[in-house]
């Protein structure tokens, strides 16, 4: 597959004339960004058959091809006129299987292999040659995953036990992709973290077994090369990148002891002080650990199921930073509320967090956990960096309206604000220019479909699933890093043939008594604008809101003291008061500001009290000296 032609794959299920499964964009058409005219078998088909419309049902050359070729469909594997076309065209096989349910599919990391399950078998094909490689008899498989170098295919099916075998049936299988043989079978009861973790070169593989992390080397699953044992290990994450390999483990707290996350370097586990870093914290029922691409730091999102303060129904979250150099810190988030999403930039030098009660804030932090840029507040709950790390999309999906903000993170400039209502899925294309949004089941079972966008906000393609069908999954064909070079960011909207849909303006309900009166603009929340938090050259570090508030108070007190001193200075040599003036009369000199006069009055009271107190102390000292002198004389 050419690097300029990433495929878009989708799975949807029909319910008319029996269930049928369609895997889009794995067919005869080599889709050029899924939006161009393509050529099908140019060496064997007639000229009139070379042009077909991508993403539509078409007939292929009705005037030249035989009847058996008229049913060719652009987005499926089909048989191309088996009785009339040459043998080189027979590799295109039909994938529409009536009565079968597609439960899972996956691409390999480099996008050259594709595997799917149809309810009866697991099929593995080569995307480049379009040939079937293997077919495994695993009808109950619901999860699939390739190893990073396409050596092993891991499959998982729900754990079951038989009456005769109390130990249960192994439900995690590892297959050799080249030979099709089963390398090893394990018992994996939980679906969570079912797949073993491989290093990028596949020299190391790890899985969590009974509070231990078992390590296998060179895909030899018959021998455990090493073990990491800690009491009640709940989760672990293997670092990306080359050697030396690192692993982050999480141990939940118990009996008043705090939870902690530790970083180790393989295979140094048993030595004293072997941990590279350690971070302990309370209020953690579960954690999410995120390595950066260079494996130099981990972000830990610790969350509780219940917020004991009652501030949030969804529990309480905190964000922690742990570096492999031993540094650790709590990331201070200026706004209270849940943490919706945290993502690393591919540069591994900064990360973005979306947090706070709605409207949520989004902030970019550096490796010192200092804020670099604050995007203000808005209806958002997710963040997505482009594969090259130069564009950031802030979006509000799920129960929000689907508003997106596309930012240039090099200049921190807003590119576009498209709207994708009812979206439940978002994914960047490996080329770093296109994105796909989709409405999928079971999150939403109506109005399913997907859209292909350019990051400038234009819709390049739209596909709506029929009302009697459901779209379950959509994904891009992956490619290795470096295949698509980074392109300069453009701010001009890319033209599109798809008609734009203007969103309907939502108007607030107005009771009949107010409908003939002018509309008054009122906001429930004050919107905060974007703000550059990076210190400018020659300027000090920007202060937080609390620090600015304290600084203003300090300046106000300082000004009040100066005014009080200026008022006291002429009173050092006061003129004799007239006899008619009462003794308790206070000077009526004012500054014109009631608040300032009040502060001056309070300061004068404090000064008078301190002077009287000093006089009393001096009298006590005199009495004490007199008593001592009298005792000495006696």
TrEMBL record:
Cellular component terms (Gene Ontology): cytosolic small ribosomal subunit
Classification via Pfam families: eIF2A
One GO BP annotation of this record: regulation of translation
Basic and acidic residues bias (residue ranges): 557-571
SUPFAM superfamilies: DPP6 N-terminal domain-like
Gene3D superfamilies: YVTN repeat-like/Quinoprotein amine dehydrogenase
Ranges of residues in domain Translation initiation factor beta propellor-like: 279-474
Protein keywords: Coiled coil, Initiation factor, Protein biosynthesis, Repeat, Translation regulation, WD repeat
InterPro entries: TIF2A, TIF_beta_prop-like, WD40/YVTN_repeat-like_dom_sf
Recorded GO MF terms: mRNA binding; ribosome binding; translation initiation factor activity; tRNA binding
Compositional bias ranges of the Polar residues kind: 580-593
Region (Disordered): 496-601
Function: Functions in the early steps of protein synthesis of a small number of specific mRNAs. Acts by directing the binding of methionyl-tRNAi to 40S ribosomal subunits. In contrast to the eIF-2 complex, it binds methionyl-tRNAi to 40S subunits in a codon-dependent manner, whereas the eIF-2 complex binds methionyl-tRNAi to 40S subunits in a GTP-dependent manner.
Family membership: Belongs to the WD repeat EIF2A family.
Protein name: Eukaryotic translation initiation factor 2A
Lineage: Eukaryota, Metazoa, Chordata, Craniata, Vertebrata
């Amino acid at each position: 597959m050419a690097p300029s032609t990433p495929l878009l794959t989708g799975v949807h299920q029909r319910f008319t004339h029996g269930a049928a499964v369609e895997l889009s964009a794995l067919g005869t058409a080599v889709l050029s960004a899924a939006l161009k005219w393509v050529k099908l078998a140019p060496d064997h088909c007639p000229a009139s058959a070379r042009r077909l419309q991508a993403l539509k049902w078409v007939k292929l050359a009705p005037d030249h091809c035989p009847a058996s070729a008229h049913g060719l469909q652009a987005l499926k594997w089909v048989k191309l006129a088996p009785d009339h076309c040459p043998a080189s065209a027979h590799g295109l096989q039909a994938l529409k299987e009536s009565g079968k349910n597609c439960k899972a599919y996956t691409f390999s990391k480099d996008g050259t292999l594709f595997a799917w399950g149809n309810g009866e078998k697991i099929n593995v094909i080569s995307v480049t040659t379009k040939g079937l490689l293997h077919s495994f008899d695993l009808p109950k498989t619901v999860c699939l995953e390739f190893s990073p170098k396409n050596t092993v295919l891991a499959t998982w099916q729900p754990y079951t036990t038989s009456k005769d075998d109390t130990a249960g049936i192994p439900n995690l299988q590892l297959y050799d992709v080249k030979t099709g043989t089963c390398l090893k079978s394990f018992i994996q009861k939980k679906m969570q973290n079912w797949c073993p973790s491989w290093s990028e070169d596949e020299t190391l593989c790890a899985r969590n077994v009974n509070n231990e992390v078992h390590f296998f080397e060179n895909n030899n699953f018959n021998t455990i090369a090493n073990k990491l044992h800690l009491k009640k290990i709940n989760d672990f994450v293997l670092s990306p990148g080359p050697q030396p390999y690192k692993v982050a483990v999480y141990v939940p707290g118990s009996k008043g002891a705090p939870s902690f996350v530790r970083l180790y370097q393989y295979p140094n586990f048993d030595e004293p002080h072997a941990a590279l870093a350690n971070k302990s914290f309370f209020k953690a029922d579960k954690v999410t650990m995120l390595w950066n691409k260079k494996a130099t730091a981990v972000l830990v999102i610790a969350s509780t199921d219940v917020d004991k303060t009652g501030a949030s129904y969804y529990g309480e979250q905190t964000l922690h930073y742990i570096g492999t150099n031993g540094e650790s810190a709590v990331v201070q988030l200026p706004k209270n509320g849940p943490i919706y999403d945290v993502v690393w930039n591919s540069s591994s030098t900064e990360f973005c967090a979306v947090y706070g009660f709605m409207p949520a804030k989004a902030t970019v932090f550096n490796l010192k956990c200092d804020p670099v840029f604050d995007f203000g507040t808005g209806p958002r709950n997710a963040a997505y960096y482009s594969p090259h790390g130069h564009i950031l999309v802030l979006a509000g999906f799920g129960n929000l309206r689907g508003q997106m903000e596309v930012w240039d993170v090099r200049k921190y400039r807003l590119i576009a604000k498209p709207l994708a209502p009812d979206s439940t899925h978002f994914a960047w294309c490996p080329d770093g220019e296109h994105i796909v949004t989709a409405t999928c089941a079971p999150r939403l079972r109506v109005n399913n479909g997907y859209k292909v966008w350019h990051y400038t906000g234009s819709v390049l393609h739209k596909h709506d699933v029929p009302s009697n069908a459901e779209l379950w999954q959509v994904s891009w064909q992956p490619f290795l890093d470096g295949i698509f070079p980074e392109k300069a960011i453009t701010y001009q909207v890319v033209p599109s043939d798809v008609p734009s849909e203007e969103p309907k303006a939502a108007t607030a309900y107005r009771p009949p008594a107010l409908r003939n009166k002018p509309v008054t603009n009122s906001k429930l929340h004050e919107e905060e604008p974007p703000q550059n938090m990076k210190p400018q050259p020659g300027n000090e570090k920007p202060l937080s809101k609390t620090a600015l508030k304290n600084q203003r108070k300090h300046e106000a007190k300082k000004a009040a003291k100066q005014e009080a001193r200026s008022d006291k200075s002429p009173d050092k040599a006061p003129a004799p008061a007239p006899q008619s003036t009462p003794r308790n009369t206070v000077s009526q000199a004012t500054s014109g500001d009631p608040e300032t006069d009040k502060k001056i009055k309070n300061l004068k009271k404090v000064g008078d009290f301190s002077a009287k107190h000093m006089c009393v102390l001096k009298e006590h000292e005199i009495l004490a000296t007199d008593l001592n002198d009298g005792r000495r004389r006696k």
